[in-house]
Amino acid sequence: MSRTSKPADVTSHPDWCAPDRCGHLVPPLMTHMARRHRGPMHRVGDTRAGGLIVTYLIGADARTPLIAVHATCRAGNAWAELPLPQVAQLVEQLRGLMKQAGGHQGADDE
């Protein structure tokens, strides 16, 4: 007698992986994200007010995780999967913009 299917490989999940979102355990959110670990989502903004940014960690087994950034606004949707050095560069650019703006929070300007 022979088996018709392979036994499932045992998957170890990184500490940051969210079991309710993991591509190894639930259907992927998007086809390009199949079989990737996904961490909890962090949201900034309000889609009704002008835009929303969602970030989370993603990663395949035995690879350095990436940070996924999804941006939604009235003009459409976009996303990027950034390696950690690019995320550090983005953070520094945002800090620089905050300094230029005088660190004002809650401004109503778009």
Radius of gyration: 18 Å
DSSP E strands, number: 5
Number of DSSP helical runs = 1
Shape descriptor reads globular
Mean pLDDT across all residues, rounded?
A: 81
- SS class: alpha+beta
Tell me what portion of residues adopts beta-strand conformation.
Answer: 25-35%
Distance between termini?
68 Å
Helix-residue proportion: 10-25%
Summarize the structure.
It contains one helix and five strands. The protein is an alpha+beta fold and 110 residues long.
Could you explain how this protein is built, in words?
Strands 1, 2, 3, 4 and 5 form a 5-stranded antiparallel beta sheet that branches. 10% of the residues are buried. By secondary structure, the chain is an alpha+beta fold. It is built from 1 helix and 5 strands. The model has no long low-confidence stretch (mean pLDDT 81). The chain is 15% helix and 28% strand.
